[in-house]
Amino acid sequence: MKPHPAPSQDLPQPARRQRRVRRKDARPGELLDAALDLFVQKGYAATRVEEVAARAGVSKGTLFLYFPSKEDLFKAVVRENIAGRFSEWQLELDSFEGDSEALLRRCYAVWWERIGSTRASGITKLMVGEARNFPALARFYHQEVTEPGTALVRRILERGIARGEIRTLDLQTGVYLVLAPMVFLTLWQNSMAPCLPGQDAGASLPFSPEAYLETQIDNLLRGLRP
């Protein structure tokens, strides 16, 4: 009995070539997805590029074709999952027509939907834990994530003050007042929660993340109103 040919061998040559092109185009995304999983699970120092390549189903040499080093791979993960979103968030802020209360509630809801409830939230915990050991990565994260993030929140507060909806306050400390609940939630989800019974971060939280954010925004608004 003759062995069955591989599915790709049944395709005409142009179709096989197109399939290879599609596969090649998909590889960077597959590598970034695998890298995000491993960086969040194991941390930056403990993650080896061989593991990332194996999880993505490619060789280490293939990985290096797209990302010359582990540092380049990590930077690409950060840009893909967090830093690359700031331009869209700036545009959303530019077009937002509601008051400051609605804007702050929208800010928390969008952050939770796109970052907080996703695997990308683990990047914050990783940086908190490993920044001192990798100062170059810490500087990169500060430039690509922390600075744009604080600038965005600063714009929200400045907008509210100009509209008379937020009292005059020190903007630098006001920014961290807004960001603090987000940082706490990401650290809890990716440190304590996975260690609790059930090993499921979402199910193990002793509170609803949505309810927690709602309480935080209510308290924040009470303090920010004129």
TrEMBL record:
Residue ranges for the DNA-binding region feature of this UniProt entry: 48-67
A Pfam entry, by short name: TetR_C_11
Annotated segments matching region Disordered: 1-25
Domain HTH tetR-type per the UniProt entry, residue ranges: 25-85
InterPro entries: Homeodomain-like_sf, HTH-type_TetR-like_transc_reg, HTH_TetR, Tet_transcr_reg_TetR-rel_C_sf, TetR_C
Keyword Transcription regulation: yes
PROSITE patterns in the record: HTH_TETR_2 (PS50977)
Biased composition (Basic residues): 16-25
Key words of the record: DNA-binding, Transcription, Transcription regulation
Domain of life: Bacteria
Name of this chain's protein: TetR/AcrR family transcriptional regulator
